[in-house]
């Protein structure tokens, strides 16, 4: 899909690589979330499969190599479990090495229900080369689900080096950002926030309950 805009910028939907952010401490889960099984399949496998239907390639990013991963691995360039922004930085740097790529999409390993049309809708919101698009639901933003200009890698690297909080939102304030609102997902029970994320063992139990009512 091509998205021509009034500004003349065209984002080639067919040339967007995807990166799964799978690093961090998993301190609330107590073990590596990427390897946690939901209805018999790991969160990492589920998210890779879901993303691979929307992008030209899928790579896995973390600060250390995950167990059992058959996709290209992209290590954090900024060391020390610096947080999700370190993963987004590694994703931008990865995209910048690929031919004709202007934007890279990131998703979080702990959100197994993210939208099937995530990349289409984020891409539709990009109308200049420097624009970032991030997902929102119910008025809350989910910046780990973002479409990022690969040209921002150096800017993000220097920002991480100078900012103590390393909050994604603080970085976004410095840039041109489109927020893309996604609807709640109907199930046979109530409405599911597609960005529900599995941070704790209780969240995992809740995710198992959602699995039983997905349509
Ligand atoms: N590459 C990379 N990804 C990270 C890092 N920290 C967090 N993430 C990813 O960012 C996303 C959101 O992470 P959180 O759920 O907020 O935190 P977490 O570190 O995974 O877990 P907690 O320790 O329980 O907060 C997940 O996809 C994580 O895998 C990091 O230092 N490097
Ligand atoms: Mg989380």
Describe, in plain words, how this protein is organized in 3D.
This protein is an alpha/beta fold and 215 residues long. It has a single domain, classed as Spore Coat Polysaccharide Biosynthesis Protein SpsA, Chain A, CATH 3.90.550.10. It contains 6 helices and 11 strands. The protein has helices spanning 43-52, 84-96, 118-124, 153-162, 168-172, 201-213; strands at 2-4, 10-12, 18-21, 37-38, 41-42, 58-62, 73-75, 103-108, 132-137, 140-149, 177-181. The strands form 3 sheets. The protein has a 7-stranded mixed sheet with strand order 7-6-3-8-10-9-11, sandwiched between helices. Strands 1-2 form a two-stranded antiparallel ribbon. A hairpin with a 2-residue loop joins strand 4 and strand 5 (41-42). The longest helix has 13 residues, at 84-96. The relative contact order is 0.17. Guanosine-5'-triphosphate (GTP) binds at residues 21-28, 33, 61-63, 76, 81-84, 86-87, 108-110, 144, 199. Magnesium ion is lined by residues 110, 197, 199.
Mean pLDDT: 93
Helix share, percent: 25-40%
Strand numbers in spatial order across the main sheet: 7-6-3-8-10-9-11
Residue windows where pLDDT falls under 50 for at least 5 positions = none
Largest sheet: 7 strands, mixed
The structural class is alpha/beta
Number of helices: 6
Rg result: 17 Å
The name of the CATH architecture is: Alpha-Beta Complex
Listing every helix as H and every strand as E from the N terminus to the C terminus, the arrangement reads EEEEEHEEHEHEEHHEH
CATH class: Alpha Beta
Bound molecules: guanosine-5'-triphosphate, magnesium ion
Q: Overall 3D geometry? A: globular
- What fold name stands as the CATH topology? Spore Coat Polysaccharide Biosynthesis Protein SpsA, Chain A
Can you tell me the CATH superfamily? Answer: Spore Coat Polysaccharide Biosynthesis Protein SpsA, Chain A
What is the domain total for the residues? 1
* Secondary structure: number of strands: 11
């Amino acid at each position: 899909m091509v998205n021509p805009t009034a500004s003349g910028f065209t984002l080639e939907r067919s040339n967007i690589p995807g990166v799964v952010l799978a690093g961090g401490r998993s301190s609330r889960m107590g073990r590596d979330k990427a390897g946690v099984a939901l209805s018999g399949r790991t969160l990492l496998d589920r998210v890779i499969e879901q993303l691979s239907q929307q992008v030209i390639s899928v790579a896995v990013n973390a600060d250390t190599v995950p167990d059992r991963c058959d996709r290209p691995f992209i290590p954090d360039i900024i060391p020390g479990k610096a947080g999700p922004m370190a993963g987004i930085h590694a994703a931008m740097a990865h995209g910048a090495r690929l031919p004709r790529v202007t934007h890279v999409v990131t998703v979080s390993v702990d959100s197994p229900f993210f939208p099937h049309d995530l990349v289409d809708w984020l891409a539709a919101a990009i109308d200049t080369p420097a624009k970032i698009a991030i997902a929102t639901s119910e008025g809350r933003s989910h910046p780990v689900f973002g479409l990022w200009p690969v040209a921002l890698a150096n800017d993000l690297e220097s920002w991480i080096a100078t900012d103590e909080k390393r909050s994604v939102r603080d970085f976004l304030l410095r840039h041109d950002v489109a927020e893309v609102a996604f609807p709640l997902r109907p199930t046979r029970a109530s409405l599911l926030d597609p960005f529900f994320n599995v941070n704790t063992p209780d969240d995992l139990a809740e995710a198992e309950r959602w699995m039983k009512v997905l349509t």
